[in-house]
Design brief:
467 residues, 20 helices
C-alpha cells in the first residue's frame, strides 16, 4: 500500500494537535493519509477513524527492551564494564547500552510501518527530538522518503533556547547539571556544534546530556547542531515567513531545505479576518456589549504552567495585570491557553468583571481593537497579521528581542502597573491606532504568508517550490 502522507504525532500535546489538524485537512482533500500516535494518547484521537491510526505501544517497547537484556550481548557488556569502571561511569555506559537496544526495537517498528505504507511524505514535529522520531528519520532516509518538519510552532533556536536555564528551578527541571560539559574537554573537542556558552552561569551546555549525544552519533541520527531545527535528517523545514527564513539561513540551514509555506494554523485566523466586520457585529449581539467602547482581548501568560515562575509569582503578575486594567473603560475579554485549567481562572470573572472567551482565539482576535499577550508567544504574531495593535507583556524581562527584530509598532510592557496607563493612552489616540494598523499591514509578509492557503502548501509540498 502506498499512501500520500504519514504524520508522526507522539512527541507532545502540541505536536498531536498540530498533526491532527494537518491529518484531517489532508483527508478532506482526498489524500491517503495515516497518523501515528503513542498508545497513551488514545483518548485524544477518539474523533479519528481507527483504520487511519497507528498506535505505538510504549509499554510493549519497554517490555521488549527488558526482554532484550536477557540476550548474550548483555553478559558481554557486563563483563566489559561492571568491574572496570566506577559506579557513575558504569551507569552512563548502561544507559547508552539500553538506549541502543530501545532504538533498534523502535527502528524495526518504524521499518515495518514505512515498508507497509511507503508514504510520499512523512511529517514530523522536529529533527532534534530524542524520542521516537530518530528511528523514523533514519529508516525514512534509507528509503528515500521525504521528511518534512511541519510548521506547528515557532521554534526557538541556538542561543534563544538558553532562556529556559535562567533560574535555579528551571535549571533543575531541564537537567542543567547533566548537560554541563564545561570540564569535559574531550566532548568540547569532538562534538563541536553540540554546545553553547551560557553567559549567566558561565558554563558550557550541551543540547543533550553528553552520553545521549554520543549514542545518537553512533546510531547515525545526531543533528549537526540540535540547537537549530533543520540540521538533522529532515528533508525540508516549513516556515511561516521571511524573518524565519532569514534566521534559518543565518544559522546555516541549507536554503534548499527551507520552504516558506505559512503556518496552517493561520488559515482559520485568515477566514475570521476577512469576515471580521460580520463577526464583530455577531460578537457584540451575543455578548450584549456597547459598540462605542473599545474591545480588548488579553491572552493570559502561562508562567506557572510553563514553570517559568512559582505559583505565587504567577498569580501576583496576573493580579497586577487586571488591577492595572481595571482603570480602563473598555470591554475586556480573556483568552486561555489550552494548557491552562479554566477552573483555576474562573474567579477572575467576578473579581475583575472580565469574561473568559469560549471560542478559540483564532476566531475572535481579528475583531479586537487591542490585543495583549506575553512575550515569546506565537500568538503575538497573529495580532500583526490581523492588523490589531499589540501590547507584549514581559514582566520576567525575558530576552526575546530576536523574535521581534525588524517589526515596528509593538508596545512592550515590563511593569504591569503601567499597563492600564499605556492602554488608556492608546485608546484615547485614534491616530496612533491607525498608524499601528498601517505599520502591521506593511509588515505581514515578514511574519507569515497570510492568504488562507498555508495548509494546502504544506500538504502539497512535493509540488510547491516556494522559498
Amino acid at each position: 500500500m502506498k499512501i500520500d502522507h504519514l504524520f508522526l504525532a507522539f512527541y507532545n500535546d502540541t505536536s498531536l494537535q498540530g498533526m491532527k489538524y494537518l491529518f484531517k485537512e489532508s483527508l478532506a482533500r482526498n489524500y491517503k493519509s495515516i497518523i501515528v500516535v503513542a498508545s497513551n494518547q488514545y483518548l485524544k484521537v477518539k474523533d479519528i477513524d481507527e483504520e487511519k491510526i497507528i498506535y505505538i505501544n510504549l509499554f510493549l517497547i519497554r517490555m521488549r527492551t527488558l526482554l532484550d537484556l536477557m540476550k548474550f550481548d548483555t553478559l558481554i557488556f557486563l563483563k566489559n564494564y561492571v568491574f572496570r569502571y566506577s559506579a557513575d561511569k558504569f551507569l552512563i555506559e548502561f544507559k547508552k547500552f539500553l538506549w541502543k537496544k530501545k532504538f533498534d526495537i523502535q527502528s524495526r517498528m518504524a521499518k515495518r510501518i514505512l515498508d507497509k505504507y511507503n508514504p510520499k511524505i512523512m511529517y514530523i514535529y522536529g529533527d532534534r527530538t530524542r524520542s521516537f522520531e530518530p528511528s523514523f528519520l533514519k529508516i525514512a532516509k534509507i528509503k528515500s522518503i521525504n521528511v518534512v518538519v511541519a510548521p506547528i510552532v515557532l521554534y526557538l533556536c541556538n542561543k534563544d533556547l538558553l532562556w529556559k536555564y535562567r533560574n535555579k528551578e528551571l535549571r533543575k527541571i531541564h537537567n542543567f547539571n547533566k548537560k554541563d560539559i564545561t570540564k569535559l574537554l574531550y566532548f568540547k573537542e569532538n562534538f563541536k556544534g553540540q554546545y553553547f556558552y551560557h553567559e549567566l552561569t558561565k558554563k558550557y551546555l550541551s543540547y543533550y546530556e553528553p552520553w545521549v549525544t554520543e549514542v545518537m552519533k553512533e546510531k547515525g541520527v545526531l543533528s549537526k547542531n540540535p540547537w537549530q531545527i533543520g540540521l538533522g535528517l529532515s528533508s525540508y523545514v516549513c516556515m511561516s515567513g521571511e524573518n524565519e527564513y532569514k534566521k534559518f539561513i543565518l544559522n546555516k540551514v541549507p536554503a534548499q531545505k527551507l520552504k516558506i509555506t505559512g503556518n496552517p494554523e493561520t488559515d482559520i485566523l485568515y477566514n475570521s479576518f476577512i469576515k471580521k466586520d460580520f463577526k464583530k457585529s455577531e460578537f457584540i449581539l451575543k455578548n450584549n456589549i456597547n459598540n462605542n467602547k473599545k474591545l480588548i482581548i488579553i491572552a493570559l501568560p502561562q508562567f506557572k504552567e510553563h514553570k517559568e515562575t512559582d505559583d505565587q509569582s504567577h498569580w501576583e503578575i496576573i493580579n497586577n495585570i487586571f488591577k492595572s486594567l481595571s482603570n480602563v473603560d473598555c470591554h475586556l475579554f480573556v483568552s486561555l491557553h489550552p494548557k491552562t485549567k479554566k477552573s483555576e481562572y474562573l474567579f477572575l470573572e467576578k473579581m475583575f468583571s472580565i469574561k473568559i472567551l469560549e471560542s478559540p482565539l483564532s476566531e475572535i482576535l481579528p475583531i479586537a481593537d487591542i490585543f495583549i499577550a506575553a512575550t515569546g508567544s506565537t500568538i503575538t504574531f497573529w495580532s500583526i497579521l490581523c492588523e490589531v495593535p499589540l501590547l507584549v507583556l514581559n514582566p520576567l524581562k525575558l530576552d526575546h528581542k530576536d523574535m521581534y527584530l525588524d517589526i515596528s509598532g509593538i508596545e512592550f510592557i515590563y511593569d504591569m502597573n503601567n499597563l492600564g496607563k499605556v492602554v488608556n493612552h492608546i485608546i484615547s489616540n485614534p491616530k496612533k491606532l491607525e498608524i499601528v494598523k498601517n505599520l502591521f499591514r506593511k509588515q505581514k509578509e515578514k511574519i507569515s504568508i497570510f492568504d488562507g492557503n498555508c495548509t494546502e502548501r504544506v500538504l502539497d509540498l512535493n509540488n510547491y517550490n516556494g522559498n
